[in-house]
Design a protein that fits this description.
Length: 414
């Protein structure tokens, strides 16, 4: 659409990156949102952040949003705001008190402004009157949700949502009370959406069971890294990528690695992932094993280049989740011809079609030990890598982003 003779605002797509900007996570949903934001090629798409104190959206500088993750100093630091919140959140009573306080709009955004991650806004307030408001991640809080509801209620505004999963509603035992509460608020927006984009057929089926009359489109997520067809040189370490939280099943892998290390004391385990929720027992076990001399490294955050190095040199990626919405690290590992040991659950089992995937019952410690032992056989590991059909793996965010933006653009058509 163009500006009319009276100078009315042309329709645009407003990509809400608010939730991503309050975290330093380089895995999971923030990774998806940052990649979408990094592949905008038209001025028709505007990045926006919701400011709860002003109860308004502000424009986000695309370059600043990307650059804040680029330097080694920045990527190695966790936000003080998130760190403090999650540390105290491990104590249930304190967690309830903090959550109650932060549910207050003014308290949350005041703390965000004082000790939270730096904003990437240009300071320019955005008046959304015409176009598509695109929500690619769960909103921060109830004030954020209410603002989106008011926006979607305007006649010239369409609401689009990228739905990754409904896990906090399906498996609340794996998540913080705060995140379950956020998802319950967020679920109200699904009923208002003019378009919901999902990443898998199974997620589409789940969505249509809830809201059969709604429009839903499938756009599978890609690997961020191009296919690797060079010489494979594996180091003697196994890799885990994902947020530190119970759902990701780190405890089972730590137990398995402890047993495996008695057979190969030189083996290493590298873990990449920020603190999530209910992580205290996981870190306690990790530190116990480190103290006992096991070679375990933990990185809360790394650059994309460092992550790519890990994928290319690891003996295998271990992805043992109890439940998942997608499993993007599996795709990224396979694109580098790195074998994967993952849970034998429906959504992760689907990746076996690419080859190179070994399935294990997520509670079977001995099963993980056996798979790790098998991959110590270089000939077997090489054959597993050779069987990965890298040409079938969706690669690069440019095509995926443009497909998503094309669906959003269809909402602008008269």
């Amino acid at each position: 659409m163009t500006i009319d003779a009276q100078g009315a605002e042309s329709a645009r797509i407003y990509l809400d990156v608010t939730s991503t900007l309050v975290t330093r996570n380089i895995t999971g949903i923030p990774r998806v949102v940052r990649n979408l934001a990094g592949h905008i090629t038209t001025s028709k798409i505007v990045l926006v952040e919701y400011d709860g104190l002003a109860d308004a959206y502000f424009e986000v500088d695309q370059n600043l949003m990307s650059s804040q993750y680029d330097t080694a100093t920045q990527v190695e630091k966790s936000s003080s705001f998130i760190r403090i919140y999650k540390q105290f959140g491990e104590i249930r009573l304190v967690s309830k008190i903090i959550t109650r306080i932060l549910r207050n709009r003014y308290a949350f955004y005041l703390l965000r402004a004082i000790i939270g991650p730096k904003t990437a806004t240009t300071g320019k307030k955005v008046s959304i009157q015409n176009g598509v408001l695109f929500i690619p991640e769960v909103p921060l809080n109830q004030a954020h949700v209410r603002h989106i509801e008011r926006m979607s209620g305007q006649p010239n505004i369409k609401l689009a949502i990228l739905l990754h999963d409904l896990l906090p509603l399906q498996y609340p035992q794996y998540f913080s009370d705060d995140l379950v509460w956020k998802f319950r608020n967020f679920s109200a927006l699904l009923q208002l959406s003019d378009l919901t984009i999902v990443t898998s057929q199974s997620m589409k089926q789940q969505f249509l069971e809830l809201l059969p009359e709604k429009r839903v489109e499938i756009v599978p997520l890609p690997s961020s890294f191009t296919q690797y067809n060079g010489e494979i040189r594996r180091d003697n370490f196994f890799l885990m990528v994902g947020t530190i939280e119970p759902r990701k099943n780190h405890i089972t892998v730590l137990k398995a690695f402890e047993k495996f290390s008695t057979r190969d004391p030189s083996a290493r385990l590298t873990i990449v992932g920020a603190r999530g929720w209910k992580y205290r027992k996981i870190l306690q076990e990790l530190k116990r094993l480190q103290k006992n001399g096991l070679h375990i490294e933990w990185y809360e955050s790394v650059s994309d280049n460092r992550l790519l190095e890990f994928y290319r040199s690891a003996r295998a990626l271990i992805f043992p989740s109890f439940c998942e919405g997608y499993g993007l690290p599996i795709l990224e590992a396979l694109s580098q011809r790195t074998p994967v040991i993952t849970s034998d659950v429906a959504v992760l089992r689907d990746f076996a079609r690419y080859g190179g995937v070994e399935l294990v019952n997520p509670i079977d410690v001995e099963g993980f030990v056996a798979k790790m032992q098998t991959l110590q056989d270089s000939k077997y590991a090489q054959s597993l890598s050779a069987n990965i059909r890298v040409d079938d793996i969706p690669i690069g965010w440019n095509c995926t982003a443009q497909t998503i933006f094309s669906h959003l653009n269809s909402l602008l058509q008269p």
